Amino acid sequence: MECNRGGIYRLMVVLMPLMLTSVVVAPDIYGCWGGCFNECFIGSHKIPSKSFACHLKCLDSCVPRSATDYQYYCQIGCSLKRCIFVSYDGALMEKCFGKCTDICKKII
User: Fold this and answer.
1) Which residue ranges traverse the bilayer (predicted)?
2) Total domains in the fold of the chain
């Protein structure tokens, strides 16, 4: 039981900064997706099995368009994939986040 709690706490240590960053950095993306999906799906009273067209429409109109948006999503994906395993050690996690920043700068 204690081991499971430790895993949950480590996961929270990784996810909480990412979630807080997403609230500050990317409100436009959420606003776009939420507004588009609400208007398309809820406003038109579509049944759930017919919502795929709304997903496509909103995905097309809300896809990140700037290098900053791509950089942000690259860093989130990289840190979730690579840094979760070192979440128990703050220094290693900081190093891992730094590597993700470097990787994403090279890609974008």
Assistant:
1) 7-30
2) 1
CA distance 7 to 83: 13
Q: How confident is the model at residue 21 (pLDDT cuts 50, 70, 90)?
A: very low
Q: What is the amino acid identity at position 85?
A: F
The 3 state secondary structure assigned to the chain is CHHHHHHHHHHHHHHHHHHHHHHHHCHHHHHHHHHHHHHHHHCCCCCHHHCHHHHHHHHHHHCCCCHHHHHHHHHHHHHHHHCHHHCCCHHHHHHHHHHHHHHHHHHC
Higher pLDDT pick, 53 / 16? 53
| Domain interval for residue 44 | 2-107
Amino acid letter, residue 65: R
- Cα(39)–Cα(98) distance, rounded to whole angstroms? 39
pTM for the model: 0.42
| Tens digit of each residue's pLDDT (9 = 90 or more) over 79-101 | 888 888 887 888 888 898 899 88
